[in-house]
Each structure stands twice: as structure tokens, then as C-alpha cells.
Amino acid sequence: MPLGAHVSIAGGVFNAPHNGKEATCEVIQIFTKSANQWKSKRLSDKEARMLDEAQEETGVEVVCAHDSYLINLASPDDALFMKSYNAFLEEMQRCDFLNIPNLVMHPGSHVGSGEEAGLKKMGEAFNRLFDADPDGKVTICLETTAGQGTNLGYTFDQLAEIIDMVENKDRLGICLDTCHIFAAGYPISTEKDCKATIKSFDDILGLNRLKIMHFNDSKKDFGSRVDRHEHIGQGFIGEQAFTYFLNDSRLAKVPKILETPKTSAAEDIANLTLLRSLIRKKDIK
Prior knowledge:
Low-confidence stretches: none
Number of strands: 10
Shape: globular
CATH architecture: Alpha-Beta Barrel
């Protein structure tokens, strides 16, 4: 069961696996640059080599990166769109350079242009990005969102609509965030509801497209459309929902990443210890 957390790259990306090991992770998510700045320092061959060595030494695998929070590929503003486009292309290239297989990204915000216009802008952006980077290997994982403000991607149908517009669909995957789908109105707190939501995901998007899961409880109640993460079992989702996800054999190999609040590795250790205690032998079918 590949469990882990988003960890810091302070001092260099090659430090991330060691930070993950300290937090008892098997897998980790990282930023490859500052998430709150457009500019980035160019990666060196030495840094890439040191990251590979750190993964081998610790046994902790970098399964995904997360893109910058500034990027908005659905923006109706031409200048911001081009800034986002260039930044995201760089994010893709940085992942390939570091041999990171998945790049998680928020589908963007329409900022008043309307949902259909925003979704269309996203589809066009991916076609353009993949044409500009024909040999790229990283899988772009569209993350389910809470639907806060004008954010897109809060329904499985919206994510499917983006994928339908993209010619090279093999380069797209999905990241399912438990807090986000709960806040968006997908029930998961009972076994019956969890099964129904997973079935809906499979029917609309296909479980074969699920590459990453973010395991977060929610500070806000069901259907709130507010994105606020909480420690496992301490929010409105509750501990039991994670039991259902952890014991569904179809999801067993999907990396599950914490993005819960923390000031040190101790919080990640506590959350991961709890999650591991919920894994049982009996399968949920």
C-alpha cells in the first residue's frame, strides 16, 4: 500500500526522499520549484542524479510533483494565460528531467468567463502543450477540486469534458482528493456512499485513469464547496471513509498522498500510522 505525504524540497529536490523517510513515507509528492513564484532556478544534472540516488538510498519514491498555485490554464486574460502556459510547460519539462512520472495540477478558474469557456480553454491548452512537447513522458493528473469560487474540475463530468477535448488522451490522468470531492458534494462517509462515488468515477472517467489520490479530511462540511484540509479522522469526512478507500483492492496500487496541515514530520507520522491501522485483509468489492 503506497502511502506518503507532500514533503519539502528545502535545500534541494534531492532532500525530499530523506524528508519522506523521516515521515515514514513510502511515496512522496513534491514541488520542483517554489509554488508561489513564477521564476525558477534551472535544475542541474547533478541535482537530478542526487535525487535518483536519494530515492534508491531511502526506498522513498517521488511519485508525483504538484504544479505552481499561480498557474491558470483556464484564464480568459491572454497575458496571464500565456504566463501560465509557459510556466506549465516548464513544470512538465522539469518533471521529465527529474524522472517524475506524474504532475498533479488544479484545472484552473474561469474567472467570470463561464465554466464552458474555461473548460474549452483547458482542452485547447493541453493540445497546445502536448504539441509543443511531443516527446514528454510525464502524465498530467487533473485534480478533482472543491469548486470554490470559479474553480473548475469539481465534477467528474467536467474532468471528462476536458479529456474529451484533448487529442493525446494517454498523457492525461486524474488525481482524486478526498477533501475536495467531499466538499464538492460527492458523499463518501459511509461504505454505501463511498462505493457509489467510486462507481460514478469509474463510469465517467475510468479507474484506469486514476494515478494519484490525495488523502485529506475536511475542515468544512459536506457540499460546502470550500477547500480546507484537516488531519485524518478529525474533520467532517471521518476516519471510516478512509477505511473504504484503503481496503478497495482496485485502488491498492494507487499512491495515496497526505496534504494535511503540519509543522513537522510528527503530524505526517501520526496520520500515516492511523491510515496503516485501517488496512485490513477483507476486500471491499
